[in-house]
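User: Can you predict the 3D structure for this chain?
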Amino acid sequence: MAVDFAARARQVPGRAVLSRPLSVPLIAGVVGVLPLAVAAQPGEGVRDATFYLQLVVAGYAGIRLCAMVLSGQRRLIQGSFWLFTYLAMGIAPLAQSVLGRDPTPVLGPRGDTQLATAYVLCGLFAFDLGALLARHRPSLRGRRRPPATVHRQRLYILVAIAYVASALLIVQLGGPSVFFASRQEISASLSEATGAEAADSTGGEAGNALLRGFGTVPAMLALLFLTRWMVTSRSARRRPSVLLPWAGLLVINAIVNNPISNPRYWFLTVLFALLFTVFPRSPVMYRAALALGVIFALLVFPFTDRFRYDEEGRQEVETQSWLEPLVVKDYDQVNMFANTITYEADGNGHTYGKQVAGAALFFVPRSVWEGKPQDTGFLVGGWMGTNSANLSSPLWAELWLDFGAPGMIGGFLGVGYLAARTDRKYVQRTVHDPSPGNVLAVVVPVLAGYSFILLRGSLLQASGRIGIALLCLALVTTLRGDPRAQLR
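Assistant: Here is the predicted structure, written as structure tokens:
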């Protein structure tokens, strides 16, 4: 088996060569045609310094995205970063400037949007520098740690927890049919399940998030671990003790993690993670996911918002121009970054780590921590005069509000370094360690998918599911090479 995997590994560079004839149209389309086609559209916007900065952001992110697609190695986390940046921080703001329309009101002067765009570009440079430093860091082979593997008995405990937690969520909300109605109906059912009065308070919202998190995250991770086991082990595919729990989890995930009742970014996380778990070594699938992600985000993603509301509250996306789907709330990241800059300049100042600390300590109740910070998007939204809880707070805004420009640049330097190191370890472990219990082979695809949520923000909203996922991983992971506990 080891010889077979080694032979496949040697084929990866050859497949990269096969993609070179496609590199010219790919680079031309992503870097040149699409940004220039957006810039050339008629609209009420002005071609000022902000417009040209956004054009630079789109071009630079497009070049880096193409580099990820054409790379001989799978760089899942870096690829997700550049896919999000190209669309949400580059193409979409450029389209908004051309049309002269903002998906979220920008209260400050145009100069704040220009400053936000310049900071976005600085963050991209810092991310790239961090990835470059990680690439040239010497490998510490003498201090190699034992690989993290899945403990078989504990995996079955996670499967049992997933069944119980998801069943509790389904029963509390009134049955499986609720999950195929709308997200508005799901929210109403959650409020009813936890009590109307509690739902109006912060504790009630936290209870809703906790119930939903435990009903969705363990089911997803248990399915991924069993899928990895079946993909890499022929004997596992013949065992009823693996097949039956896997089939049940497939049904459960189709209910609790479907795209109708869940935020679209969460469904993308599940889809990305499942895709790269089923095809852990396919460079073709990796490239197709990144390349088709651009098309999906432009043509499909904005229209899936129709599942958010019921028939009465549903608003169709207007399409007088092909740029219209880019002028929706999904792509308000640069707008909200500009509003965060204006919020700070309005006398509120930087928070010096308070917002990030609130996200890291999300599990601490407000009854214990009276000064616990609010969600950053909700905080800035309250200052803007809106009570919407669906405002984004991109990672650029989170780091800048806490630590200013130096802290934001340093933060992206660290993010780029960690992303490149993790991607490199992922490639090494999946190529040279095809074992069914390879934890990293499941964790990295999940992290790549969830990076869309982390980059969009806010961090506090994203922290709950991360905490639950860490508990699940701590349960099933072992560093001991006990043959009796290994997956076979």
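Residues 395-432 form the longest helix (38 residues). The radius of gyration is 23 Å.
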